[in-house]
Design brief:
The two termini are about 20 Å apart. The radius of gyration is 22 Å and the shape is globular. The chain is built from 20 helices and two strands. Helices cover about 75% and strands about 0% of the residues. A two-stranded antiparallel ribbon has the order 1-2. By secondary structure, the chain is mostly helical. It has one domain. The relative contact order is 0.10.
């Protein structure tokens, strides 16, 4: 069905159209991303009911899989594509007024290329094309991190580039080993042939993939690039890196571990890696008492650790919790970075102490920030309460000592997380605002155009927390797709 291909084609074509639009109508170029992403979102929502009933296979090249490049528009891929399109749409609206460094056309084109890469990663049914889309995403991310061309951004982008290149090399070597073993790059075809392979060979290939995708997912100890990139990039870039880019690494780890390699025997190790990442990320975030964006960056490391922990449970309920937390983190962390962007702009500093008392001068922005923070902590009635509760219940359901011990550590890490977020919120409302310099303008609320996506995210977090049924049907279908690899093979290859 052409609709599945349009999800990738629209942002890709729009990215290349932006320079041409900029030549003809310079002011119109910044509106191309919102229009393209709105179209993607509408297409995704239209396709969702049908896909939940039966996945859509898009074959490119006139041959059936595995003899062609194909897209697998299933519950997992489409649910993530809708999330990517929605979050990217709100960030693009925010960026219309936020991004002022010329040439802005370059920023908006790179933004759409990053989004295209993310959409391609979650929709492709071919492991090599997953790598190609992953590289598109990464290259755009490197460029956007250095967009301001300042020293901090350039150094962060170079660190990101070096580590990302190493990760990409590991992925490519893993793909080469797979092709050498099975002579195919179609993921369903590989999955069908995996039982005939030596377990040691599969373990080595899986290790290459986990290291490679783990760099972009920012799992420990492969996350050294993330704090500098998130804190140095423009806040709209920080938002898309945290809400979208690192999620593609998590998706790839899950897809390879479940669908491709059927690596249930080693998933407890993946859970352990997730918990180590969670603890280190939360402890590092707690220590960040000066730079708000660096604190949020380390918080992202911790949240990714929690998602990876749930992925490793090897149950449909665990994967449901992981995907629910992925959605919660995408919405909440996007909200936090966007809100922090204008708080930093208004006070002229990233220092947390300079944001004391902002609850009086920026009431809507700080309230929205508080909603995002409380959702990440897991407080009711926000989306994070339901997602974290699902993960805890899934761990208890396993009745395995390893997962029970790991979830206890995760709950302890949540207390640390609450500590640093409550410290920030307390500063907004219970500390005096630092007196501005005599030559500075009084601090004002975020402009309406940028405030709109922030408020939409805050409202949605509350709505999903109160009415989780809005997303649970799609997320259950997505989790079942990962667990039931036999059905994935049957749908893609058309085998009985």
């Amino acid at each position: 069905m052409v609709g599945g291909a349009l999800l990738i084609a629209i942002p890709l074509a729009s990215a290349f159209a932006i320079p041409l639009v900029g030549l003809a109508l310079k002011r119109a170029a910044k509106w191309v991303p919102p229009l393209a992403l709105a179209a993607d979102l509408v297409i995704g929502l239209i396709l969702l009911p049908r896909v939940l009933e039966k996945p859509i296979i898009v074959s490119i090249g006139g041959f059936p899989p595995p003899f062609c490049i194909n897209l697998m528009v299933g519950p997992l891929g489409l649910s993530l594509a809708i999330l990517i399109s929605f979050v990217a749409l709100l960030i693009s609206i925010y960026a219309v007024g936020y991004i002022k460094t010329e040439p802005t056309e370059k920023y908006h084109a790179l933004f759409l290329l990053l989004t295209t890469g993310a959409l391609g990663v979650v929709l492709t049914g071919d492991i090599f094309n997953l790598f190609v889309f992953f590289e598109i995403l990464c290259v755009a991310s490197y460029a956007l991190t250095a967009y301001r061309k300042d020293r901090a951004g350039s150094e962060a982008a170079m660190k990101y580039l070096i580590q990302g290149t190493v990760g990409s090399t590991f992925i490519l070597v893993g793909i080469a080993f797979l092709y050498g073993l099975f002579g195919t790059l179609n993921m369903a075809d590989i999955a069908a042939r995996v039982p005939s392979a030596e377990p040691l060979h599969l373990f080595v290939i899986l290790a290459f993939f986990i290291v490679g995708f783990g760099v972009e997912a920012a799992v420990f100890p492969l996350n050294a690039w993330l704090p500098d990139a998130h804190s140095s990039a423009p806040s709209s870039v920080s938002a898309i890196l945290s809400a979208i880019a690192i999620k593609t690494g998590v998706y790839a780890i899950a897809r390879v571990s479940y669908t491709l390699m059927n690596a249930r025997g080693v998933l407890v190790l993946i859970s352990a890696i997730g918990i180590v990442t969670l603890v280190i990320g939360e402890m590092a975030a707690y220590r960040q008492k000066d730079d708000i964006k660096r604190m949020l960056a380390y918080s992202s490391v911790g949240q990714i650790g929690l998602i990876v922990f749930a992925i490793g449970m090897a149950t449909s309920f665990g994967l449901f919790g992981a995907l629910f937390q992925l959605v919660n983190h995408a919405l909440a962390k996007c909200l936090l970075f966007l809100a922090a962007g204008y708080m930093i702009y208004r006070v002229g500093s990233k220092r947390l102490a300079d944001m004391d008392g902002l609850g009086r001068s920026m009431p809507l922005t700080t309230l929205a920030f508080s909603v995002g923070a409380f959702s990440l902590i897991g407080l009711p009635p926000f989306a994070g309460f339901m997602s974290k509760l699902s993960i805890v219940c899934a761990a208890l359901e396993t009745q395995r000592a390893a997962y029970l011990a790991l979830v206890a550590v995760a709950l302890a890490a949540t207390i640390v997380e609450a500590g640093y977020f409550f410290r920030v919120v307390q500063g907004f409302y219970f500390r005096k605002q630092v007196a501005p310099d005599s030559d500075r303008q009084p601090i004002k609320e975020t402009p309406a155009g940028a405030l709109m996506p922030i408020v939409v995210l805050a409202v949605l977090i509350v709505v999903v927390g109160v009415y989780p049924g809005l997303v649970t049907n799609a997320l259950r279908g997505a989790a079942n797709e990962l667990v039931n690899r036999t059905e994935y093979i049957r749908v893609v290859l058309g085998t009985p």
